[in-house]
Amino acid sequence: MLSPELETRAFLGRPVVDIYGRSLGRVIGIERNAFGELEGVQVEAAGGLIVSAKARQLGLTPKIITLTPDWKLEAVDIISELSLLRKRISALESLKDTKEIEGEIYRELLDSQKAGYYDKVKTAEALSASMKHRLSEVGGQISSLTRYLVNAKLDHKSGELDEESLKLAQGSIEPTLHPLIAERNDLAGSLKTLEEVLPSRVTVSQTR
User: What is the per-residue DSSP string for 133-200?
Assistant: First the structure.
């Protein structure tokens, strides 16, 4: 762990990019908790917009800071937690079947585990809805940029646009399009993995 002084030097003024390669701005502020531990940073983005990022989203390299989207980290956490909760409930059911646990204790533990599981399912469903919304936004942006690129190529083929202008159009569109495609693919893959754990419902019988 870096000292506060070294952290300040490492982060302040450092350029920030996301994991898809887009430039987000530069770090202009550091947030710490009551114990002086790094909690997050403030990033000055284009147009003077200030964006907050949590410490766990940040990856420090010699030249830049890489930021992982919060949804991606949350999805990994939720998938792991849901899988563990299902395993614990299954293990509890197994203990009941082999009569290694008393009925009253089994019911108490079962209620607790099920409550935790269903609360986590609700959190996962909310995250899934948020990711789908972002996926829709990204998909719309990709469609628009792709149309612009195709139109530029069509104009070039028909002689309405010269080679230099086509290169200018491609140089303007493609640096934005490629990160969007990477983000779309990442969102789609993470959503698929998240939704594979969402439909499962643990059904357990009560002792008589």
Answer: HHHHHHHHHHHHHHHHHHHHHHHHHTTSS-HHHHHHHHHHHHHHHHHHHHHHHHHHHHHHHHHHHSS-
Question: Domain range for residue 59?
Answer: 4-68
- Residue 41 phi, psi (nearest 5): -135, 160
169, 80: one domain: yes
Q: How many CB atoms lie within 10 A of CB 135?
A: 17
Residue 202 lies in a domain: no
* 53 and 147 fall within a common domain: no
In tens, the pLDDT along 51-67 reads: 999 999 999 888 899 99
Model pTM above 0.85: no
- With contact defined as beta carbons under 8 Å apart, do 200 and 127 qualify? no
